[in-house]
Write a structure and sequence with these properties.
- The protein contains 9 helices and 10 strands.
- The chain has helices at about 50-55, 80-85, 100-110, 115-130, 145-155, 175-190, 200-210, 225-235, 240-245; strands spanning about 10-20, 25-35, 40, 65-70, 70-75, 85-90, 165, 195-200, 210-215, 220-225.
- The termini are far apart.
- Bound molecules: adenosine-5'-triphosphate (ATP) and magnesium ion.
């Protein structure tokens, strides 16, 4: 329609390429995630999911292609404006071991432009949500593996990002927290936050995601709503589609 500008997507990746030595980790990957979506990125080990995510947040520098977050350039050095809009929980647990859990959160808030007061309030709220209040004075390396994962999530959400990217958020997390976590993420989504997650638990993706994309060998091989994909593949479960698309 003339005069109608399309809405700006939360995430727009165009023809992104990244090579590590002789591995083409991203091979001209294009992906659009509309604002407000609950989006699952699925694919086997080594498909390029983490490389893509790290490119979006600027931890990996892609060789070519463009990434935009809410219309702002992303994934480049000094892409601060877009980076502030993103909450990122990495697959590998990386936490400062020398500050307390609470301090780690308040520092993150300050780093992301929050006032001291707001960062402190929000840190306490996140400690409560992720059941870490009793550990607020501990150091990160004094936490259990699952607690560290919770802290990563608390940190990712602390600055109230508009786009939340979770790279295997439930790996190593107990059932109770998994249920709580998804409840919380669902609430964020209902309030308009865009969610992108990777997971190897297909039943999780099936239940939560409004849209999924399969990534294989650095490209998107399939993209659609679970219903569309089930119809297209005559499948009942996402797992059948995964096997058909990934085909290993
Ligand atoms: N820093 C790096 N140096 C060299 N190769 C890398 C590096 N990071 C990733 N790769 C390679 O890029 C490819 C994609 O890896 P990536 O971590 O993106 O996969 P993934 O889809 O996240 O897999 P998983 O499900 O196991 O987390 C792999 O072949 C990996 O070995
Ligand atoms: Mg990964």
């Amino acid at each position: 329609m003339p005069g109608v500008t399309p809405p700006v997507p939360a995430l727009d990746c165009r023809d992104v390429r990244k090579r590590f030595g002789d591995v083409q980790a991203l091979d001209g990957l294009s992906l659009t995630v509309p604002e407000g979506a609950f989006f699952g990125l699925l694919g086997p080990n080594g498909a390029g999911k983490t490389t893509l995510i790290r490119s979006i947040v600027g931890l990996t520098h892609h060789d070519s292609g463009d990434v935009e977050v809410f219309g702002l350039p992303a994934g480049r050095t000094r892409a601060y404006a877009s980076r502030r809009l993103i909450g990122y929980a990495p697959q590998d647990v990386s936490l400062d071991r020398f500050v307390t859990v609470r301090r780690l959160l308040t520092l993150h808030g300050r780093y992301f432009g929050m006032t001291k007061h707001d960062a402190a309030d929000r840190a306490d709220e996140m400690l409560d949500v992720f059941d870490l209040t009793s550990k607020s004075r501990s150091l990160a390396n004094q936490l259990s593996g699952g607690m560290r994962r919770r802290l990563l999530l608390a940190r990712a959400l602390l600055h109230r990002p508009r786009l939340v990217i979770l790279d295997e958020p439930t790996a190593g997390v107990d059932i109770e927290l998994r249920t709580d976590l998804w409840e919380y993420i669902r609430r964020l989504h209902r309030d308009g936050t865009t969610i992108v997650l990777t997971t190897h638990y297909l039943e999780e993706a099936e239940e939560l995601c409004e849209r999924v994309a399969f990534i294989g060998a650095g490209r998107i091989t399939e993209d659609g709503t679970p219903d569309d994909l089930r119809a297209r593949y005559g499948a009942r479960r996402l797992e059948e589609i995964y096997r058909a698309v990934v085909g290993r």
